Every structure is written in structure tokens, then in C-alpha cells.
Amino acid sequence: MSKKLAFLGLGVMGYPMAGHLAKAGHDVTVYNRTGAKAAQWVSQHGGRSAPSPADAARDAQIVLMCVGNDNDVRAVAKDALGGMSAGAILVDHTTASAEVAREIAGAAKARRVDFLDAPVSGGQAGAENGKLTIMVGGDAAVFAKAEAVLALYGRAVTLMGGTGAGQLTKMVNQICIAGLVQGLSEGINFAQRAGLDPNLVLDVIGKGAAQSWQMDNRGKTMVADKFDFGFAVDWMRKDLGMCLAAARANGAALPITALVDQLYARVQARGGGRWDTSSLIRLLRDE
Fold it and tell me: pTM score > 0.70 for this model?
């Protein structure tokens, strides 16, 4: 059955995610800080745009958002909650802190609105193809109401625990990726300096235990020294900063993550803040 939905934030992830909702026949109202982007989305997908999060969220059964960082989440969620009705559900797809998830959940509860933190993994391609991995924190009964909608752009939609569990799971994801990308960078650099054909090496080891999403999707672009796409270093540093802060609070040791975070700081210092995270290999090539 068609639902009345709102989607707040039409960046590289949110734009196609909202598109999947419209394609499935839902009544979608969108909001974006830059109104021209919202107008473009409406011209492509139908529905309508609104001038504020509150206006977009008004009368929506489920309001979904995908913005930039904790402060963006606070600002957009506060405005959206002002337009939401009791019994509606607010879903935050932003990669943010578990603390802000709990904060927004409390604000939502005060207005008798339910809340799910639901960060995603899979990048722009995953959003466009409707094959994101979605890690959800919140109440099981609320998750059951929203799951079918999230599944329109998620191939794996999983409730990980209570509020904040989705964000903590996304941190695990980013911790693992950080080490993988650095290891892949070192391997490719070693292969090139050893006089091997790096693309042939990737083809061979990609059929064994070294295989990973990063190798399959970034290995050959790393060999080609192409980084003007994908998940930006600036955003990865934001994410790793949250991982390291959470680790200080829970006592987890993250020595590799801390090292890779500093390596990304060196990439930023070279003007690579908007390069893809696989640009770590640039540091090794320039040694």
C-alpha cells in the first residue's frame, strides 16, 4: 500500500534513495537545503518538494533523512519533528554518533514520534542500485513498521539492537574498511615496485582469501591513480573520529584505525579531502 513519506537531504546517497521510494509508488515529499536540487528531483521522479524539513514532514507516516554530520542531524531533525504527527516514524540514515541518535530519540519520544537510527553502507552505487546494507537501531515493533520501506533501497536491512546500535555497527564497518584500504594500498604499491603486473595480481589474489569489496571495486582504479569519485576522505575522517571517540569511551583499542586516520590527515593536507578513500596509496607512491 502506498504511504505518505518524506525524504530530507538529497545528496549523492539521498537523491537515489528517495527515487526508489517514488518508483515504488509512494507519495514522496522531499526537502533539500539547496532548493534547485529538490526541484530537479521532482522533475525526475514526481512528488513534490517543500521549503523546510517541517513542511516536508507534515502528515508523513515515515520521515527519512540523510544529511552530513551530528550538527546537521540535530538541526534537520528538530525542524522535522515540529511538523510530524504522533505515531509517525523518523528514520535517520546519516552516519552520525550513537550519542546524537539517543538524543534525537529522546526528542522524538517527547513528541510521541518513533525513531530509528539506520546508517547505510554500499556507497553511491549501492544507493543507485537499491542494494545498500542498512544497520538499524531502535524498537523492534517500530522496525517492523518501517522495514518494507527501507528494503526498497536495501538488500540487507537488519535490526542490530536498541537506539544507537545502528550507528555503532556502522563504526565497526568503517574500522574494518580503514584497515582494508591501507592493506590494499600497501599490496598494490609492493606489486608495482616488485615489477609485477598489478592488475594481473589483483585478478589472481581476488579469487582467494585476499578478496574484498575494496579490492573488487577500488583495486584497479588505485592502479590507474584515479580518485575523483566515491566516498570522500573528508567524510571518512569524520567517521573515524567518531569511531575513535567511541573507543575511548568503551575501552576498545584501535591502533590501526588511529594510524589510518592520521594517514588520511596527510591526504587532506595534500588537497585530497574530496578524493576517494582509496587515495591512501598516493602516500606510498610518493615515498
Answer: yes
